[in-house]
Sequence to fold (191 residues):
Amino acid sequence: PAAGARFYDWVVSPTGQQVLTIENVVAGGPRVMRRLSLPAGTPLGQLQPLTEGAHNGFPYYSNDGRFIVTWYANVEIFEADSGRRIAVLPDAGPWFGGHPLFSPDGRTVATATSGVVHLWDLATGQARVPPLRHRGNPRVVEFSADGRALLTVCSDGFARAWDATTGRLLAEPTLQQRTAPVAALSPDGAQ
Fold:
């Protein structure tokens, strides 16, 4: 960045061939996403301005490297190769559980806000299922290995299992923990 500008975050693509930065190129100016080739650091395409007023500063590549998701105040989806913005997701931030989570097949991203988990189609930016409502703030979100189930754990201490293809709750909330709500799926997704 130029003098007085600010660098916020960076991430290397899964292939190791690109680095993505979030920065201000002008002091106090809007945040932009910059893509650079590795190892040369050659700019790839134009600077991509992020949504006006957004405090995007956390970029993530999808597992297959085809998509970029930036998040904080807003969540935005971009094509990794072109830098083209696909969508600004409504009601998708701030994240309470860590960072946006990609499905194993790379077609869906999960985001969590106050009491809600959303599953978004990466190619279109449209909701895949109705919002998954919770009584507390989601703290853990995990896809099963096949991407068909979703585990959520909230600040209310309950773990919930969802059908990630329909949004249907698979079982009544279980495993209430009042201290540090954590849970994980077994590698085969059966437990």
In short: The two ends are 47 Å apart (CA to CA).
